[in-house]
Amino acid sequence: MSNEATETIAPVTNATEQSTQTGAVEQPVTSHSSTNKKKKKKRSKNNIKNITLIYPDEKYPEGEWLDYNLKRTTEAEERYVARDQTREQEWNDMRKASEIHRRVRRNIQNKLKPDMPLMDIANIIEDATRKFTGAEDLKTMANPKSQGIGFPTGLSLNSCAAHFTPNAGDKTILRYEDVLKIDIGVQVNGNIADCAWTHTFDPKYDNLLTAVREATYTGIKEAGIDVRLTDIGEAIQEVMESYEVEIDGKVYQVKPCRNLCGHNIVPYTIHGGKSVPIVKNGDQTKMEEFEHFAIETFGSTGRGFVVPGGECSHYARNGNAPVSSHLGNAKKLLQSIDTYFGTLPFCRRYLDRLGEEKYLFSLNNLVRQGVVTDYPPLNDEPGSYTAQFEHTILLHPHKKEVVTKGADY
Ligand code: HZT
Ligand code: MN
Ligand code: MN
């Protein structure tokens, strides 16, 4: 009985421990000697004080958790607890993916030099992601989709705003005058960190980059539970268009690429069905609690409108599409896609790496049947410059978390 009573008052012990750990808010009881009697008495009187002084972080110890005598743990309650644990797991996975993203981008930021082939940049980034996630050899992984690259590394230059990554044999070289968007995806249990920035060597583009960086930060500030998507677009547009950039003697008002947008992210699905506009578009859809969003904005010196063009590199399995029975030669390729990527986006280089050969005809067939979606490069008008900044945010009940935020951007 007395032993149990001692157990029951354990939180008081915790309290003393906690206050000692968190910075000696309470005087520790150091001595029981008689010479200290006066002081001891004074101290115990002082122990009765506003409890927030004992718990400066306002995190109080939980009581003892006991089951009900009757089996009152309802199925609904069990589902609630399981849901809660799933969310904590997702958030932790997102933090892991984001920490890897920060390390991968710091590594490449320290190596970028004019005259580097885009192929080398892609390989440096993707090899680092593979190493950090333990996904170096998909073929020997027990679960090749458990973690790794979240989507192909976007390395889009100048008028190309998004979805360029080199295919095999590509000889494109990064030049001093280029405006490069680097878009990196890292996934842990399908939870994708989607985060991008724009790299330039020449300071003449600085105002363009500032416009887009500030526009993205505005989108992040406006985002929240029950916020209408159109209102986020309107705020982004206002900030973006408030900037001018002078390049080679010509002044441009920075325009948002109005047909590009951010998006929600659900496990193994880079585009969860909601689009976050970067102009006022009237979409009354609201953001909701627990959603993950990629907030990305694109600014341009061109029309502010992108069109697909150039050789395609990015693809993703369409999870909903019915698989027709006569896929022929494409069936083997589809099995590889399902095994190694599922619904995660992939690029031709990743198929090459798996040892797939002469797959292009089959891949095109899968695209034509709607089983795979192609994501060709997206380009503003020739001669224009586009910039992008992107972060992934998590809508917790009481706060939002810019999970991919780093010291760089
Ligand atoms: C598609 C394919 C990929 C999603 C946005 C994006 C890079 O433009 C609705 C809104 C990777 C991503 C995506 F391989 N796209 N974020 N980062 N691209 S999107 C889109 O197709 S669909 C935006
Ligand atoms: Mn992205
Ligand atoms: Mn995105």
From TrEMBL:
Lineage top rank: taxon: Eukaryota
Q: What keywords is this UniProt entry annotated with?
A: Aminopeptidase, Cytoplasm, Hydrolase, Metal-binding, Protease
Amino acids binding substrate: H163, H271
Which cofactor names does the annotation list? Co(2+); Zn(2+); Mn(2+); Fe(2+)
- Which residue range or ranges hold the Peptidase M24 domain? 93-306
- This enzyme's EC code(s): 3.4.11.18
Subcellular compartments: Cytoplasm
| Pfam families xref list | Peptidase_M24
Give the InterPro entries listed for this entry: Creatinase/aminopeptidase-like, Met_Aminopeptidase_Type2, Pept_M24, Pept_M24_MAP, Pept_M24A_MAP2, Pept_M24A_MAP2_BS, WH-like_DNA-bd_sf, WH_DNA-bd_sf
Region Disordered: list its residue ranges.
Answer: 1-45
Q: Which GO terms describe its molecular function?
A: initiator methionyl aminopeptidase activity; metal ion binding; metalloaminopeptidase activity
Question: Which GO terms fall under biological process for this protein?
Answer: proteolysis
Entry binding sites for a divalent metal cation 2: D194, H263, E296, E390
State where composition is biased (Basic residues). Answer: 35-45
Question: Catalyses which reaction?
Answer: Release of N-terminal amino acids, preferentially methionine, from peptides and arylamides
- SUPFAM superfamilies assigned: Creatinase/aminopeptidase (SSF55920), Winged helix' DNA-binding domain (SSF46785)
- Hydrolase found in the keyword field: yes
Query: Which residues make up the binding site for a divalent metal cation 1?
Result: D183, D194, E390
Its cellular-component GO annotations read: cytoplasm
Q: Which NCBIfam families does the annotation name?
A: met_pdase_II
- Protein known as: Methionine aminopeptidase 2
Q: Which organism is it from?
A: Zygosaccharomyces bailii (strain CLIB 213 / ATCC 58445 / CBS 680 / BCRC 21525 / NBRC 1098 / NCYC 1416 / NRRL Y-2227)
Q: Gene name?
A: MAP2
